[in-house]
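Try it yourself: sequence plus zinc ion, in.
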Amino acid sequence: MKKTTKIILCVLAAVLLIGGVVGGYVGYNLTYHPSKWMAEGDDALPEMEFEKALGELTMLSNTWEEALPQTEIYNLIKDHFNAPLPEGKTAKKAIVIGYDGCRVDTLRLLPTSKRSAINHLLEQGGQGVFSYCGGVMFPEENIQKTSTAPGWCSMLIGAWANEIGVDNNGQPKPLEPKTLLLSLVEDGTIGKSAFYVSWDGHFSKKDATYINEKNYAKENGVDATFLRAFFDAGTKRNILADIKRENCSDFIFLTLEYTDHQGHNSGFGPQNVRYVSAFRDAEAAGMDIIEAIEARKTFAAEDWLILITTDHGGNGGGHGGPSFEERMTFIFSNKAILK
Ligand SMILES: [Zn+2]
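Structure, out:
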């Protein structure tokens, strides 16, 4: 083969390769496939001033001015396990279903939901409340970022970043203070816990938030599972496999990335149809998980606490700052939250 022919073929191959990769990436980001759980006529909601939108969330039992700190999640779980077993129950279980980066005003879509874990909890006599992330003294002072790591950490430890030592992603949490995933097992409250995710920042790389806890559990025989899948579908598969076991984990904590990923990709909030679609996917996955719990052979004898929450909201295509849209969150439970 002539040298010039070889060069032409090489250039052609390079163009095809680079074009394929770039084209695939652009195509992936431009092509929109609505969730199969979009309801009839489902679309983005018209733009509405954020505070006014919060006023429309009548399914929540407090006002945004009465929002609870997200650290309340820790108390709800501790109180559940510490309370005596109700009549006729022989075991206690708890699960936190986390919708990462789910902006609270997206709950305006609930009335038209086709398949909704949140609606299901409310129909069962549960309750929903406004909560907030980002630290104390809401809204005057912001002492931690409205980011993923500090958000979930505050719920799993019941304290803010200043006491935990994690104020952003990419900072391994010191072993102490331990999260409920380890502390509940180590103090004998429960037999085993499990943490299911797809985001590698939780415990799957050197600077991951819970890498020290994962290593400690492995080295010390603490029965806490840390399992990462590549996508939300894999996270759900791992959870369903756990719940289907007769002796399933007593405390399960999980995060689904649908809303956070779509928020970063195309914008947070219900005015974005792609974000609406991501919320529908999260809700349907949440419902699959709750149905698997309710289908357990021993369900009638078990006392489950089921919580659905988010770590932070979002503003435009991101989060981390102190805006109202980033700080307001929500907590739903199958039980009463407000005493
Ligand atoms: Zn997040």
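One thing you can check immediately is this: The mean pLDDT is 92.
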